[in-house]
Amino acid sequence: MATTDQLTESAEENVSWVQEDWIYIKTAIVLAVFTAIEVFTYFESVHQAPEWLLVLTLSFLMVIKFFLVAAIFMHLRDDNAIFTKMMVLGLCIAWPVYFVMAFAFGFLPDWNPILKVMFLLVPPAITGFWLGYSFKGGTGGHH
Amino acid sequence: MKIVLRRFPLTETATTETSNDHSEDHVSTLGVSNDKLGMWVFLGSDCLLFGGLISTYMLYKDRIGPDDLGPEEMFDIPFTSVSSFVLLMSSLTVVLAITALRRNDIRRCRIWLLSTAILGAIFVGGQVYEFTVFYREGLGYTTNLFGTSFFTLTGFHGVHVSVGIIMLMSMYIQSMRGKLTSANEEKLEIIGLYWHFVDVVWIVIFTIVYLFPQ
């Protein structure tokens, strides 16, 4: 027969599992809302907005969604920090390389060159700063 | 030598296990099993592949003939948005399957696994429907460079989803035969990683290919 302590422990365990599932459900709701905002930009009245504003908004939402799935659904936030850092470092390098090539071959031709340079450098600069700031060296300890 | 052992405490464990025991519990120095690390490496290489295909599409999307239909005329955004939503929700169901298995709730795990496979199948079905419509409207694989790069990119992603469905169904069958328990939960977690990656790639494809101003 189960003791009171065992029953309490089991109830606490159930609560903790429910809480863990709730985090995933909340994340899915946020992802759905972000997707709805993205799709909203397609409709005529919003689609008339300046191209740079649409591209920046969509890129921002895309990056947030990408990291939400990677951090919470793929459990990157619970794994060794080195995984997150390697992924972010790769993306910091890939972002300007892919877009330099795309711009060179005529992607978004109407953009101001200054805006293009900012689009290329600002996202990797911010994440690169965070990467360097959070790097402690040594064992690369767990979160 | 002492310093090495203190800084990488799992190295010693992993080496000992390799030499004495061939169990599946080998742990890398990063605190995850070698199987999981292998999946991360594979996903990294797949990222490069998709990066190449996405940038190829970006370069070739305007290479259409004067009488050909372009992306703006071809794409049905409301339809693709529903497909994207379905795939996004399948990421939730697979993670719920993993947590159910972790607490040894096999019945619920099966339900979520089957839901994920069904959602994946709906997504692939939607893609097949979209391809059929495009073909009927005159956009084939070799019609122009836009068609080739579009079908290669989205078709390759569709193949990834299909492979994921097969893996999920194999997990489902294993659970029916009593071979899937919380003890080997990592197997499902690794397949879950693959499934989330497929979702993450679609997040990028949906934004860049379908939603960016043409």
Task: Write the SSE topology.
The complex is a heterodimer of chains A (143) and B (214).
Chain A: H1 4-40, H2 44-47, H3 51-73, H4 81-104, H5 113-134
Helix pairs in contact in A: 1-3, 4-5
Chain B: H1 2-7, H2 9-20, H3 34-60, H4 71-74, H5 77-102, H6 106-136, H7 145-176, H8 185-211
Helix pairs in contact in B: 3-7, 3-8, 5-6, 5-8, 6-7, 7-8
Task: Write up this protein.
The complex is a heterodimer of chains A (about 140) and B (about 210). Chain A has helices spanning about 5-40, 45, 50-75, 80-105, 115-135. Chain A has about 140 residues and is mostly helical. Chain A folds into 2 domains: about 1-80; about 80-145. In chain A, helix 1 (about 5-40) runs antiparallel to helix 3 (about 50-75). The longest helix of chain A is centred in the first third of the chain and has 37 residues, at about 5-40. The radius of gyration of chain A is 21 Å and the shape is flat. Helices cover about 75% and strands about 0% of the residues of chain B. Mean pLDDT of chain B is about 85; it is low at about 1-25. Chain B contains 8 helices and no strands. Chain B is mostly helical and about 210 residues long. The N and C termini of chain B lie far apart (about 60 Å).
